[in-house]
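LAB NOTEBOOK - FOLDING QUEUE
OPERATOR: T.R.
BATCH SIZE: 2
PURPOSE: Compare the predicted structure-token outputs for two unrelated chains run back to back under identical settings.
PRIORITY: normal
REVIEWER: second-year student, initials M.K.

ITEM 1
FIELD SEQUENCE / FIELD STRUCTURE:
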Amino acid sequence: MRVLIADDHAIVRKGLREILREASEATTVGEASNGSEALDKIHREAWDVVVLDITMPGQNGLEVLKELKRLQPGLPVLMLSMHSGYHYVMGSLKAGASGYLNKETAPEELVTAIRTAIDGGIYVSRSLADGLNLDL
């Protein structure tokens, strides 16, 4: 499994990388600290899934998501953000995200969401889905 993590906080990227490495020895993790770097890595390498933060310097995650879906519509993208408002979640899903997780998500839920996205499904954190009354 090849996962690209795009988040402007190094400590978050490191934590996510460790969660994924603990979950599967067969995981290759790449990192990007902003939207431009994420798009560059997506152009240069093949990824199975992208985990993308919304709030980043330069291009925000929603802008990157829209560009990604234009360039590689079949590439699953999971949004991982501190923002949990309805417009963030639904805006991301409408723009083509394969799921949405808040940064308070349990580590096991991240792994489940990635596997769901790679398998072609949609995953929203249960706490978000329940709190926003989403029917998924």
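ITEM 2
FIELD SEQUENCE / FIELD STRUCTURE:
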Amino acid sequence: MASFNKVILMGNLTRDPELRYTPSGAPVCNFDLAMNRSYTTQGGERRDEVCYVTVVVWAKQAETCAEYLVKGRSVLVEGHLQQRSWETPEGQKRSKHEVVAERVQFLGPRKGAAGPTSGEEEPEPTRGPEQDEVPF
């Protein structure tokens, strides 16, 4: 049976990105994204809910995200859902779903700026190795 695992999210960072390097030297960046949803209940009451998701970005794109993203910045993330499991030092089993980003698109101006300053341009988002351009 076929499977499909694709996630597209647009939201705001809830904290500054965290950049780390694996023992082999590969850059990895984590940030949390908040997505808001407004709806009306059957009783006519207006409600808002927020969904929080952790996003994991690898390679050169991780370094770019760590350099240009800050808390509050809007981004569009394309990737796939992954479940990670681990055991705490106390022996408790934990698991978490997170989005592994294949593409991160920066939206809106940088926090604290009206737009790029003279001579300063924001980089284009980088693509993962599996997203090479197809010549048609």
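REVIEWER COMMENT (ITEM 2): Helices lie at 59-68.
FOLLOW-UP: none requested
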